[in-house]
Amino acid sequence: MSSDNKTALYQEHLSLGGKMVSFAGWSMPVEYPSGLRVEHANVRSKVGLFDVSHMGEFRVQGPEALKTVEHLTTNFVAGLEKNQAQYSLLCNEQGGVVDDLIVYCLEEGTDYLLCVNASNRHKDFEWVVKNNLGAEISDISDLWSQIAVQGPNAYELVEKVYPGFQSSSLKNFELLQTSFEGSSCIIAKTGYTGEAGFEIFIENEKAVQLWQALLEKGQGLGVLPIGLGARDSLRTEMKYSLYGHEIDDTTLPHEAGLNWVVKATKKDFIGKAAILEAKELGFSKKLVGFKMKGRGIPRQSYLLFSFDNQEIGWVTSGTMSPTLNEAIGIAYIKPEFAPVGSEFNVQIRGKNIAAEVVKTPFVNQK
Amino acid sequence: MSKKFIVPEENYYTKDHEWAYVDENIVTVGITTFAQDKLGEIVYVDLPEEGNKVTQNEDFGVVESVKAASDLLSPVSGTVIEVNDGVMDNPGVLNDDPLNDGWLIKIEMDSEKELANLIRAGEYRKLIEKES
Lengths: 366, 132
Fold this sequence. Notes:
The structure holds two protein chains of two kinds.
Chain A: H1 10-15, E1 19-23, E2 26-31, H2 36-45, E3 47-51, E4 56-61, H3 65-72, E5 85-91, E6 97-107, E7 111-116, H4 121-130, E8 136-139, E9 144-150, H5 154-161, E10 175-180, E11 183-188, E12 197-203, H6 207-217, E13 223-225, H7 228-237, H8 272-281, E14 286-292, E15 303-305, E16 311-321, E17 326-333, E18 343-348, E19 351-358
Parallel strand pairs in A: 3-13
Antiparallel strand pairs in A: 1-2, 3-9, 4-7, 4-8, 5-6, 6-7, 9-12, 10-11, 11-12, 14-17, 14-19, 15-16, 15-18, 16-17, 18-19
Helix pairs in contact in A: 2-7, 5-6
Chain B: E1 12-13, E2 18-23, E3 26-31, H1 33-39, E4 42-46, E5 53-54, E6 59-65, E7 69-73, E8 78-83, H2 86-89, H3 93-96, E9 105-109, E10 119-120, H4 121-131
Antiparallel strand pairs in B: 1-2, 1-10, 2-3, 3-9, 4-6, 5-8, 6-7, 8-9
């Protein structure tokens, strides 16, 4: 534990009774005394605060910034105006996903913020620097904290903490560059829960103050701090990908259902040729959401079998959905089994338990 | 900061955090207060059926929280003679009362000699002190 990095909010987590675990080299709260399921429900019904300061942030600046980010990522960066953001992917030459990320445009053409997974920070930075087309690239992860405010009451809460700020002034994936108590911060209408809300980047010096202000002003709105456990169950209910589960360096964006952020007709980027070639040949697996029909909870790496006992895939994530109180999972499966309603077995501790492909997201269906 | 966990003196323990209460050749098995705290809210339990054979140190079932699954290891070898089916419908009992209402199975053990492979309360307290 002692070798793990600590976020600027570490002491806050301890005083809130957070159960600290080691995650991607960071000591992070997996849950607080209210427990994972209460925290999960609170984000769906009220509002929750997440310390996501362990995420990596890179700044790409200068006259070659746009060209560089365009080359590195699969989404169409030139389509971003100042203060807009987009979900995107870093791919390798084989089209595999190095990481997923959000690209924030701070100044059109010349200044971008890339927010990447904590577990990939060093790998990603090496990759980005290696493929730099002349921009100034810096890893600013250690200078910035990040607090996610998510849930139906998130808009009201952030307005209370930032007097004069109107949540309605931002559309989804738009951001505001502002300040908090004299420190720079960025309020972005993004998240990883499927609820309304913001992710706020704040300089480390003022992170504790912002966290405390959000907790204090959120008393009447039912705010709770939320650990990594609920963060994972919330994203699983939305079928959002997590690196190391649904995506890794060998998965192609289309297999993961992320073709919507691959803009191959608009631009060139690393991995484009391989992705187009694979698309031509057809994909061997597809990411689906499923529910268990029999008793059992699917977990990562459990195998899937057809009813005639052919191995047809594997589980990437699974849990007992706190919202539905049903066992749900995400899996790679052979394309012929991918349609909604397809049935198959999940092998759980040696037993075959029936499951069915369902429509996703599992919750919040529009 | 370390919490106090109730570790009854009369029980035997596995290093995997099961407790075993021995009455003649009948062994009642459950998970410890430390185990339930570590797992968090338990949402799923799977147990064997009456008449099943179990083997010392091998899994006989599973307890799962939202975030993880944890195998249940049998403290002794023998035959399952009673199963607390109620906990499968109401897994939260394992958090609320792991030492009493949350018992899992009763085993008719094959050999008392196996008890020598288990640890007693004092040693178990030291173990969880180290792990917490």
